[in-house]
Specification:
alpha+beta, single chain, five-stranded antiparallel sheet, globular
Length: about 120
């Protein structure tokens, strides 16, 4: 009886061991503020599932969101008071978390983070 069970188990497990494994899910580019602004921006923009929001006149940044809605990035434009800066908003456990990298004026960056938080509050 043990031999029959072992053969049945081997027959069931063999196809699973040979089956092609699906590739790992792509990971979200996290903010590494030790990287230069242009390098981090390029890494973010190279993500295949990134969708740019339409450019809006008067906004100090360009917005990009991942197709799955898990994260959005806000990259300042030249001439913006906080430029250069990159902010990230992530959906975590039913809430939102804002992080970012301030490469330029720290006070203007703080105002931009406050603006982003205000956008989040306006969506509720």
């Amino acid at each position: 009886m043990r031999g029959a069970f072992a053969l049945l188990l081997l027959a069931l497990l063999t196809p699973a061991a040979c089956a092609k494994k699906s590739p790992p899910a792509p990971t979200t580019v996290s903010l590494d503020c030790t990287q230069p602004f242009d390098a981090l921006k390029a890494k973010i923009l190279a993500q295949p599932r990134l969708i740019p929001a339409p450019a809006e006149a008067g906004e100090p940044y360009r917005a990009y969101s991942l197709a799955d809605g898990g994260a959005s990035y806000f990259i300042t434009e030249p001439g913006a008071p906080a430029h250069p800066a990159i902010l990230m908003q992530q959906a975590l456990g039913g809430g939102m978390r804002n992080t970012g990298c301030a490469y330029g004026d720290k006070a203007a960056y703080g105002e931009l983070m406050g603006y982003l938080a205000g956008l989040k509050a306006g969506r509720k």
